[in-house]
Every structure is written in structure tokens, then in C-alpha cells.
Amino acid sequence: MIPKLSSLNHYNWQSEEFEYYFITDSDNKTRNTILLILHEFFTNNQRIVLFMVLDSSDQREKARERLFYRNWYLQFGQDVCDMEPLPVIKIDSINVITYIMFPKGFENKVGILQEMTSYIKESFG
Predict the structure, then answer these.
(1) Is the CATH number of domain 12-123 3.20.140.10?
(2) Are strands 48-56 and 81-85 parallel, antiparallel or unpaired?
(3) d(CA 49, CA 73)
């Protein structure tokens, strides 16, 4: 069973199919955690990786999204995985920015994207 996101107070949790990473921007570990995510993807690329940045609403979230996309995904990830964003969810003053990285050739992306969008909304409900 997947725990509710709102009850998590640690950075990663694994199931047989997924690796989940939850990053809070308040502790300045975002960059290192994203690098860890990429390392885990490359060493366990049979898994789907979902990661979220819980970002305070300070108008810097777009800059952080671009930072990840340009600095990490385009440089290290695009040849081995496909990355899909989920819609940004705003909870109180927190923007929940979510991406899913799929192994190249993964066939059920649409189903997983729908399932995870519902899961995230329910978890914060």
C-alpha cells in the first residue's frame, strides 16, 4: 500500500515498480536530491521514477523547473528516459511540482500519468 503523501516525512520510498522522491525546498537539498534521483534511475532503470518538489509559492518555481530540465534532464537523462510533467497542484501556499521519468520504450505512460495524478490529489485531500 502506498502511504499518503501528507504523512511522509522522509525523502524516498520504494515499491516494486516505482521509486518516489519527495523534495522540500526549505532545506536546500534540492540539487543533491535530484542528482540522487538521476543516479538511482540509471542504476535501476527498470523502475519508473516519480519525484516531487514541494515548493513555497515564491515565484521561483518556474526557475527551479527550468534548472532541473536544462541542467540535469537534457544533459544526462534524455537519451535513456522520457520525462513527463504532471499538472502543478497548489495546496495552501505550496506548489507541488511533479515529474515522472519512464524507461525508454515504456508503453503505458498515459495510464500511469492518470493514476499518479489521481493519487497525488487524493493524498493531499
Answers:
(1) no
(2) unpaired
(3) 13
pLDDT 10s digit of each residue in the chain, 125 long?
344 444 443 344 455 555 555 555 544 455 555 555 555 555 665 667 666 666 655 566 666 666 666 666 777 677 777 888 877 777 666 667 777 878 788 888 888 788 777 777 776 65
> Whose CA is closest to 50, among 105, 5, 80?
5
Please tell me the pTM assigned to this model: 0.58
Cell of 93: 501556499
- In the chain, where the domains are located: 12-123
Cell 515499491, residue located? 15
Helices (H), 1-125: 30-43, 61-68, 109-123
Q: Residue 82 in contact with residue 113, Cβ under 8 Å?
A: no
Q: Burial, 111: exposed, middle or buried (Cβ in 10 Å; 0-12, 13-18, 19+)?
A: exposed
